[in-house]
Structure formats: structure tokens, C-alpha cells
Design a protein that fits this description.
The structure is a single chain. It contains twelve helices and eleven strands. It has 302 residues and is an alpha+beta fold. The protein has three domains: 159 residues, Jelly Rolls (Sandwich), CATH 2.60.120; 62 residues; 54 residues, Arc Repressor Mutant, subunit A (Orthogonal Bundle), CATH 1.10.10.60. The strands form two sheets. It has a seven-stranded antiparallel beta sheet with strand order 1-2-3-10-5-8-11. Strands 4-9-6-7 form a four-stranded antiparallel beta sheet, with no helix packed on it. Strand 2 and strand 3 form a beta hairpin. Helix 3 packs antiparallel against helix 4 and helix 6 packs across helix 7. The longest helix has 19 residues. It is globular. Keywords: Activator, DNA-binding, Transcription, Transcription regulation.
Length: 302
């Protein structure tokens, strides 16, 4: 993944080293390690973006809209354009965090983000379960995810985090869940939406991203992901991977099939390692082994 120092991926801030993990469908996720050059307060800035900052290590002081708090590895900051922020490092240590930036258009499609759009920034803490989910998400991104899977995973993590925060407590999503339980017509509509998504995925060439599939079926990515999981018991990513692996197995059975690197590219995997991991998780063998098992042996004398 791209890595650099001196700025975050979009603008000059305090000195830092950062690593971009991915940028799918109106979102950007990256890791930052701050470099302490002085211990006083930084200049107050309006960041101009919708951001989630999840602490990983170290501690510092943070001022959000005039309120000062200590930020540590348990901290979560949820900010929006117009929030005024500054930071200080009186402890002399650096800090590291994961940052998720999200376009307003993406948030506007999510009922559970209404509080974030309407209110000023929120700062709080993650519990052990949320922190582990955050770290596992980062690990998966660093191992390599295609943009479809990364988008769905980020949407699911965002839903979990917003529910954890005070910004989505018993909000519109809760009302949707109650409506689904009591309205057969809603359940039928959700089944049709899931079926339509299956059609799009089954007839595509696996280059469509999550946002593009959602546009094809007339839903937001967040809503489509939730409905598909509820109706089928499977995530969109898992269903798409099942389709991709079956297509890969067909190609592996061809005597003159393409090399694995090109096969990975043809079916939308990040790289050959990603292809190998997904195929092995699905069927228990890596592609190279499966190619030997599936290619028909030519009869003697042919």
C-alpha cells in the first residue's frame, strides 16, 4: 500500500507517517503515526471532512470545538466539516491511529448517519469488541482486499461504530428494523432487492464495485448490504466470492488456462495472493493444486 511521511493523504497537518489502506466508493481509510516535533498546541483548523479517528497507541491532548480531552488507544473521534480541532503532545510520545474519511453523499444514504450529519463532532471510547473489530479490519486491508469487499466491510464497521456511539441511538435504523418485522410487504420487497442483486452479481464480470451494484438495483450500498445479509444469511462479498471461485475453477480446468496472476486480474482479485487466499478458504486447496487436480489428463497416444 502507498506509504509516506510529512502529511496525511489529503492535506498538510502535523508531521506524520501514514499508510493508505484503501479508497473504495467515496471512502478513504489509512493509518497515521504522528511525529512529535514540539509539545505545544498545534494551530486550530477546520478539517473540512467527515472523519472517524480510532486510537491505536500513545496519548495526546485534543481540542474539539473548544472542549479538551485526553486521547488514548481507547478513544474514538467522529468529526464533521466545521469542527475546529487542535492537538498537543505534552507527554513527549508519538501516537498512532486509524482514520476513515467518508464523503457526505455516502453518509446521506445511511439512516444511521443522520445524527452525524446533524450534530457537531462526537468523542468517546471503543470497547474491547469494537477495538478488535477495528484492528482486524486494518489487518484484512493490509493483507489485501478488492474494492468491493473493502467497501462492504467498511460499511458494516461504520454501522457498528455509529450504533456504539451516541449518534445513532435508536435512530432511523431501529425504526426500519421494527418495520421489517411487522410488514410482510417490506419483507417481500427486500427479497426482490436481494434477488435483483444476485442477478447483477451473477451476470457481471466481477469488475463492478459495491456502489455500482447498489446503483444497478436502486438502493444505497449500506441498505443493500444489510438487506442482502438479512434475506440470504450471507454478505454480498461472500456471495460474490462463491461466484468468483466457481468461475475460477472453470478456468483452472482448461488445459491452456492463463497464469494465476492474470487469472487474479481477470476476476477482480487484488493480486495472486488474494486469489489464492479466497480460493483456499472456499475449497480447501490453493489454485496451483486445483489446476493439477482439475485439468483432464490426455489419454496415452493422443
Amino acid at each position: 500500500m502507498p506509504e509516506g511521511s510529512g502529511s496525511d493523504p489529503r492535506r498538510k497537518t502535523t508531521p506524520a507517517r501514514w499508510r493508505v489502506l484503501g479508497a473504495p466508493d467515496g471512502m478513504l481509510v489509512y493509518q497515521v503515526r504522528c511525529i512529535v516535533e514540539n509539545h505545544g498546541w498545534s494551530e486550530t483548523v477546520d478539517d473540512g471532512r467527515y472523519k472517524i479517528v480510532l486510537g491505536r497507541s500513545g496519548a495526546y491532548h485534543h481540542r474539539l470545538n473548544g472542549r479538551t480531552t485526553v486521547i488514548d488507544p481507547t478513544s474514538v473521534l467522529i468529526t464533521r466539516p466545521g469542527d475546529e480541532q487542535a492537538a498537543a503532545h505534552p507527554y513527549g510520545c508519538g501516537d498512532s491511529y486509524t482514520c476513515l474519511e467518508i464523503d457526505r453523499d455516502v453518509l446521506a444514504q445511511r439512516p444511521d448517519a443522520a445524527g452525524w450529519l446533524d450534530r457537531s463532532g462526537w468523542d468517546g471510547h471503543s470497547d474491547a469488541s469494537l477495538d478488535l473489530a477495528h484492528r482486524m479490519l486494518v489487518a484484512e486491508c493490509r493483507r489485501g482486499l478488492d474494492r468491493f469487499e473493502m467497501a462492504e466491510r467498511l460499511h458494516r464497521f461504520l454501522g457498528r461504530l455509529l450504533t456504539h456511539s451516541a449518534l445513532a441511538a435508536d435512530g432511523p435504523d431501529a425504526e426500519i428494523e421494527r418495520a421489517v418485522r411487522r410488514r410482510p410487504a417490506t419483507m417481500a420487497a427486500h427479497r426482490r432487492l436481494a434477488d435483483r442483486a444476485r442477478e447483477v452479481l451473477a451476470t457481471s464480470d466481477f469488475t463492478l464495485g459495491l456502489a455500482e451494484v447498489a446503483r444497478e438495483v436502486g438502493a444505497s450500498p449500506h441498505h443493500l448490504s444489510r438487506v442482502f445479509q438479512r434475506v440470504t444469511g450471507s454478505s454480498l462479498t461472500a456471495y460474490r466470492n462463491r461466484l468468483r471461485v466457481r468461475a475460477v475453477l472453470d478456468t483452472l480446468a482448461e488445459p491452456d488456462g492463463p497464469p494465476l496472476g492474470r487469472l487474479a486480474s481477470d476476476y477482480g482479485f487484488t493480486d495472486q495472493a488474494h486469489l489464492t487466499r479466497v480460493v483456499r478458504d472456499q475449497v480447501g486447496h490453493p489454485p496451483a493444486r486445483l489446476r493439477k487436480l482439475l485439468v483432464p489428463t490426455q489419454p496415452a497416444g493422443d
